[in-house]
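Consider the following input, taken from an annotated entry for Lipoprotein (Roseibacillus persicicus).
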Amino acid sequence: MQILTRSLPFLLLATLFTSCQQSVTRAEVIQLANAYCLHEWTPTEANVFHGEDEQGIRVDTPDRGFRQAGTRPGWWVVGEVNEGVPYQWGGFDTPADFDEKVAQGFAAGDIYTPAKRKGLEDAVSRQACGVDCSGFISRCWRLPRAYSTRELPTLCEELASYEDLLAGDILNRHNDHVLLFGAYRDSAKKVAVVYETGAPPTWKTVVHHLPVSRLKAKGYRPYRYRGIRD
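Applying the prediction step yields:
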């Protein structure tokens, strides 16, 4: 099982994303995660937005022109090919959904803020597109809707140890953030290869190599989706 591979044809990936089932293989989970990280897209000025949408919800796209004190800068560039689906608070788009909305002029992404956390679902803009951390997991598990970090554990069994983690499992922190486990980088299982979105340094789906000690210190708990199979 490879991390960040383009091995599946586009049509097969599209079928995986649009087929919501009660089970998914570990290989399928990783293929879907790779599709988000490697997705290429080209935005226009129409996809840049900073201000309140029609419902009065503040939206800030993580384009390269975005700079705001106290948070990370944006990254994607208008008129250029960018890689990775942007983070959007409350987002649940597949890469294909995202492309369609970008073509329609939706705001490409919407960063996290404390106000978003306070507002929860009421802070989700219908004029933005992308995916957030729990929406990303929900898509990779082929769930019929987005499950929050408060809900994902209800679909899972908690693992006894980090050492039991296998590809497609998650590391969840209640009402905060969730990571998709890909593999251990080392035989001692001290560094985890994880997929996530919304984490530093950029507002997009990425693969990180993180020390297990840091994850434990931050309170991430290991879970296994009941519908996953080898």
